Every structure is written in C-alpha cells, then in structure tokens.
C-alpha cells in the first residue's frame, strides 16, 4: 500500500493537486486513501489538467466561415418523393436493421422531481404517463406496424443508472421485451475549482460529473454495444433525448432522405420562431456541418433571409438524430472538444472541512453529440413541424415546461389518434 500511496502522491504533485495530497497525507484514514487511490487509477489527471488550462486561457480568435446548410422540408415533398423515401426507409426498419438509443442520463432536478428524468410523469388525455412509458409506446406502435422488435438502448449516467434499471424492471419495461433493452453509462470527468484543484466531495472521493451527451460514441464502444450492433446486422441507429414527448423515434422518411442523399448522419429540425430565439441552429462552419449556438451566431447573420423570406439560419436542433453504424464507429475513436460550464460545488478543503458554496466556483466539462457532425463533409437535415415533433420538458414553468409539453402532446393525439 505504501508504494501505491507514494506513486499516487507523485502523480498528484505532477498535476498540481495539492489539496488532495494534504487530505491523503494528513486527514484521510488508510481505508479512505485506498478508496481514493482506486478512483484516481481510473482518471487521466493530465487530461483534466489540460481541460482546466483551456478553461482559464483566453481562446484564440479564429476566422470562421458560416454558411447556410441545405435541408429537406417534409411539408413540401411531392407525393412521389414522400412515397419513395417512405418505401426505402420502411425496408430498413422491417429488415431489423434499425435501433433506437434514448439519452437518459439526467435527473429531474430542475422540474422539482427526485429521480431520473425518464421517471417524471405527465398527465395526458390518455391518463398519466412516465416519460419512459411515452417512448415505449412509440416503440411498440412501430413494432406492431413493421412486425419487428426494435432494439432499445438506454444511455444512463453514474448518478441514475441503478435507479433507471430498477424503475423499468419494477414497471415490467411497460410491456417491452426486456431482452431487447440494453443499458450503458455515459462518461464522467472530475470537476475542477477555479484554483485548479479537483473537487473532493463530502464522501471523501473526487467529484465526477457526467461529461455530456457527446460521450455517447465512446461509451457505446466501451460497453461493447457497437460490436453487438454489427453482429445483429443493425445499420441505422436513431438517437434522441428522453424529455421530448413528441419525439418521432421511428420515422422511415428520415431514413429514406438520408439514404437518398448518401449521408451517414441526419437530423431533424424545426423552424426558428424568430431571429432572437435562444436555440442552436444547423449550419456549415468552415465547410462542414455544425450546430452553432445562438451566442456564436452574429446578429446580422441571425436575421438574414433567403429569396423566399426564410431565415438562412433557421433550422433549430431538436436532438433528433440518425446515424449509420459506420459513423458511430468512426466517432468512437475521436476525441470531441469539451465545453466548459461554471457551476456551484461544495468541497472538502485541504484540512478536511466541507465548504458549502453559494456562488459558482467550479468548472464542469461536457462534450456535445452534435460536435461529431463536423467530422463529416455532409449530413441530411429534415425540417418537420414544431407542433408535431417538438415538445420538450426542460423547465418547471413557462416555455418547454410540463404544461406546454403536455398541451402539445394532447393536441397532437386528439388530431391523429382516430
């Protein structure tokens, strides 16, 4: 143990982690040191140090060329185009080459809900439904239509994995074939205080936070699921979030458009409400696909319109993506950039006292799924109607709340469930 302790201390010294060194040397018991040493073995301290340095350095100003990205408008398709896309997409689904991934690593904290976000319940015209239940109903509907059982993969996090699995087991997977359901955990990265010291939590372990939905690519590979998909002859994988109650997770038109255009990635979009709506939009940045945040799009460009009076940068990202297995394999071997968020985090100081904080004091590092798009020359974008496919639950009240999402869900099902 002494050799391992000394080696760990040297590693911490090399990465300027003096607070942890003090804790291990002067505060922690032998058992507590064993536990944190075991955790440190799984962390790349040098990478964390670089993330901190990038977060505190002034970024170089790069000359970016932002261009409009072509899209296909679902409502403008001719009957012939619609049927052609539908036919080729349905062939993929019927032949068992299609799977669905739900990104469900978040908690329902912002909604005042204790537990995984997928266990949040809404009150619909057809009774109370959990968010996971809404997804299963969509899958079951597709299974019945195409006479298949679509594999369902659920990305959880360290924080909610056990709760998620227990919840679905207790509810008998809402009738879904549990042999077709697989779980995998997204990655995590230590939080770092503004002084460069990694956060140690009151449990005397390093505080690691989920590292964003961009970790999906490496997480799939790490769990052995990409290889399993290949063995099961799955070619196309839909990826969506858990909180959009109108998410169309099995759509042959999206598959057909992607096939026709010869791309390995596609996404759905809805029209931006107005130039100032605070959303990310699809574009081409330096010649490759990109989702650009509203803070990065110059105001003048945000207001530009084309010859038809449409916003040139009006295709809103609604987290509704389709990947060919080849794209997922490629992205699993690429290190995506990390984005930095400034958060509040209590911590153990060098003397072992837990410090509660009231202001942001730490950096959280996240990668985003859409940053993977830039590693391809092109992608397909299918514009759909907001009221038919985008009803997210993000906030407790106001826009994108349970109330607005439930209203949209109910209106949709009144119209189409006949």
Q: Strands across the major sheet, in which order? A: 2-20-12-15-11-3-6-7
Low-confidence stretches: none
Write down the overall geometry.
Answer: globular
CATH class of the largest domain: Alpha Beta
Number of helices: 14
End-to-end distance:
69 Å
Got a strand count? 20
Domain count, please report it: 2
Structural class: alpha/beta
Beta content: 15-25%
Mean pLDDT: 95
Q: C-alpha Rg, in Å?
A: 23 Å
| Name of the CATH architecture of the largest domain | Alpha-Beta Complex
Quaternary arrangement of the chains shown? Answer: single chain
Helix content: 25-40%
CATH H-level superfamily of the largest domain: Spore Coat Polysaccharide Biosynthesis Protein SpsA, Chain A
CATH topology of the largest domain: Spore Coat Polysaccharide Biosynthesis Protein SpsA, Chain A
Q: What composes the largest sheet?
A: 8 strands, mixed
Give a written overview of the molecule:
The chain is globular, with a radius of gyration of 23 Å. The protein folds into 2 domains: 42 residues, no CATH class; 374 residues, Spore Coat Polysaccharide Biosynthesis Protein SpsA, Chain A (Alpha-Beta Complex), CATH 3.90.550. The strands form 6 sheets. An 8-stranded mixed β-sheet has the order 2-20-12-15-11-3-6-7, with helices on both faces. The mean pLDDT is 95. The chain starts with a helix and ends with a helix. Helix 7 links the parallel strand 6 and strand 7. Helix content is 34%, strand content 21%. It has 14 helices and 20 strands.
């Amino acid at each position: 143990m002494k050799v391992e302790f000394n080696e760990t201390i040297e590693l911490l010294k090399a990465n300027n982690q003096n607070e942890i060194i003090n804790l291990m040397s002067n505060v922690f018991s032998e058992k507590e040191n064993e536990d944190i040493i075991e955790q440190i073995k799984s962390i790349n301290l040098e990478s964390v140090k670089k993330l901190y340095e990038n977060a505190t350095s002034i970024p170089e100003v790069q000359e970016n060329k932002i261009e409009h990205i072509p899209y296909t408008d679902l409502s403008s398709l001719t009957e012939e185009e619609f049927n052609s896309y539908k036919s080729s997409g349905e062939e993929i689904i019927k032949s068992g080459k299609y799977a669905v991934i739900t990104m469900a690593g978040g908690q329902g904290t912002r909604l005042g809900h204790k537990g995984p976000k997928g266990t949040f319940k809404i009150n619909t015209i057809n009774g109370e439904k959990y968010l996971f239940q809404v997804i299963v109903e969509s899958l079951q509907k597709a299974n019945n239509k195409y006479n298949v059982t679509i594999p369902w993969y659920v990305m959880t996090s360290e924080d909610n994995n056990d709760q998620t699995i227990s919840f679905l087991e207790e509810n008998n997977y809402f009738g879904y074939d549990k042999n077709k359901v697989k779980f995998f955990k997204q990655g995590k990265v230590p939080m770092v205080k503004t002084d460069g010291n990694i956060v140690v939590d009151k449990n005397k372990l390093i505080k690691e936070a989920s590292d964003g939905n961009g970790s999906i690519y490496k997480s799939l590979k790490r769990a052995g699921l990409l290889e399993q998909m290949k063995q099961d002859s799955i070619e196309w994988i839909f990826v969506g979030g858990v909180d959009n109650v109108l998410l169309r997770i099995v759509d042959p038109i999206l598959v057909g458009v992607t096939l026709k255009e010869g791309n390995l990635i596609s996404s759905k979009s809805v029209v931006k409400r107005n130039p100032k709506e605070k959303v990310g939009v699809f574009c081409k940045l330096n010649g490759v696909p990109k989702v650009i945040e509203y803070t990065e799009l110059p105001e003048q460009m945000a207001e530009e319109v084309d010859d038809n009076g449409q916003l040139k940068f009006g295709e809103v990202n609604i987290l509704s993506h389709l990947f060919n297995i080849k794209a997922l394999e490629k992205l699993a071997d690429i290190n995506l950039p990390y984005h930095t968020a400034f958060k509040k985090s209590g911590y153990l100081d060098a003397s072992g006292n837990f410090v509660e904080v009231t202001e942001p004091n730490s950096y959280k590092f996240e990668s985003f799924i859409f940053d993977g798009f830039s590693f391809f020359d092109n992608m397909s974008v299918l514009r759909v109607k907001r009221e038919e496919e985008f009803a997210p639950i993000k906030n407790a009240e106001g826009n994108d709340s349970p109330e607005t999402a439930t209203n949209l869900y109910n209106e949709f099902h009144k119209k189409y469930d006949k």
